[in-house]
Amino acid sequence: MLQPLVLDVILQQNLIENAATLGQYIINRLQSYPEVKSVRGRGLMIGFEMNEPFTKTLKSDLLSKCKIFTGEAKNNTIRLLPSLALTREEADQFFTAFDSLIYNPS
Asked: What is the pLDDT along the chain (106 residues), one digit of tens a residue?
């Protein structure tokens, strides 16, 4: 039996539309935080800028405490590049973790 091609899966599961919709949702949510200086990106490729010392701690805590991997473009910019199959629930899990680390750091 032939396996579907990656492009077939992307089209069948509307992953491009999902990336655009969820990407805009994530961008809008990030822009609502006063701690976030700027947000840029397209689809699910998103970067957001914060104060530098806070960014390093946040990145480390997201990985070690919440098991959320982020990238880095500059010392003060966190990059998000999740799977195209990201769900709204998974995006909300990120914001739950983000909120807990910003507002209740331990």
From this structure: 667 788 888 888 899 999 999 999 999 999 999 999 999 999 999 999 987 777 778 888 999 999 999 987 778 899 999 999 999 999 999 999 999 998 886 6
Instruction: Give the E-state strand segments of the chain in sequence order.
Output: 38-42, 45-49, 71-74, 77-80
Asked whether the beta carbons of 84 and 19 are under 8 A apart, the reply is yes
> CA-to-CA distance for 93 and 106, rounded, in angstroms?
19
Dig out the tokens for 72 from the structure.
Answer: 């880095």
Query: What's the CA gap between 84 and 43, in Å, rounded?
Result: 9
Give the tokens for residue 32.
Answer: 């609502």
The domain limits of the chain are: 6-103
Please give the CATH architecture assigned to the domain spanning 6-103.
Answer: Alpha-Beta Complex (3.90)
Q: Which two tokens stand for residue 40?
A: 């840029």
